[in-house]
């Protein structure tokens, strides 16, 4: 596989921006019901979760005291195969202890990244730890991770847009697209 996006092209839209908007607002309602009257620190995993989290946060009403924080991670070793060992490039700005944390991630592929992060966060003794992902690819699952809020289940295809990238490209697209080999 090439490190640039040169060998790939956008194939077709698999989840439209309208479908995303509807689902994001449903997820926001779930979070609202569960955390009404309480403080929640939405913690986005940079950079993939940025667009999803900004839409999700804006759909949550003032009944929840929403805070935003971010972490940045990189996996050790080969970038195209998840090893499950994650290096924290940027940590949260606040302490997670005794807080309600919702970790917001773009996609669960093998689950190794989220499994590592779950252990890391649990060790910090938050009051509550929830995971929210926009997309899940169950066919690729290697680690058992409980997802509390999930946008969509998708087949084993590489997708971009709405924050998701291939080699840094296509994050800004409002829909989610399948990419394909130019070949
Ligand atoms: P996991 O540890 O295998 O679950 O890795 C998840 C990470 O792989 C995500 O945070 C994404 O950065 C990346 N990833 C996996 N599948 C896709 C995809 O289809 N499009 C874009 N990024 C993906
Ligand atoms: Mg990512």
Q: Can you put this structure into words, describing what you see?
A:
Helix content is 22%, strand content 34%. The chain is of the alpha/beta class and 183 residues long. The longest helix is centred in the first third of the chain and has 19 residues, at 17-35. The mean pLDDT is 94. Bound molecules: inosinic acid and magnesium ion.
Largest sheet: 6 strands, mixed
Structural class by secondary-structure content:
alpha/beta
Average pLDDT confidence is: 94
Distance between the termini: 12 Å
List the helices and strands and how they pair.
Layout: E1 8-15, H1 17-35, E2 39-46, H2 50-59, E3 65-75, E4 86-90, E5 100-108, H3 112-122, E6 128-136, E7 149-153, E8 159-160, E9 176-181
Parallel strand pairs: 2-3, 2-5, 5-6, 6-7
Antiparallel strand pairs: 1-9, 3-4, 8-9
Residues 48, 82, 105-113, 158-160, 164 line the site of inosinic acid.
Task: Quickly describe the structure.
With 183 residues, the chain is an alpha/beta fold. Helix content is 22%, strand content 34%.
Keywords, please?
3 helices; six-stranded mixed β-sheet; binds inosinic acid; binds magnesium ion; 22% helix; alpha/beta; Rossmann fold; 183 residues; three-stranded antiparallel β-sheet
